[in-house]
Amino acid sequence: MTINVEKKADKYEVHIDGTIKSVADSQSIKDAVGGCHDAKLPIHIRIDNSFSVTSSVIGFLLKKVQADKVDIRITVSDERLYDLFKSLNLATILNVHKA
What we know:
The protein is of the alpha/beta class and about 100 residues long.
């Protein structure tokens, strides 16, 4: 799994490529998203080539959206991951879209 973070004038872009499966992967994602310090800018997360995401990452993203009031948008390329977010009723809360 690789992560690339880019700060643009109007948003942060976090691109995650590869299967999210280990504790180290989860921590890397939390560190990358947590490193986007300007709370006024939205964070756009793109997840490619992963059919799952750990509960630790889901909980972290929910906290960012609900408690910290960060505008997060997630785009996923895998239908199974999109279906997972929908079945957990998180597609609306986390603003998840299919690429």
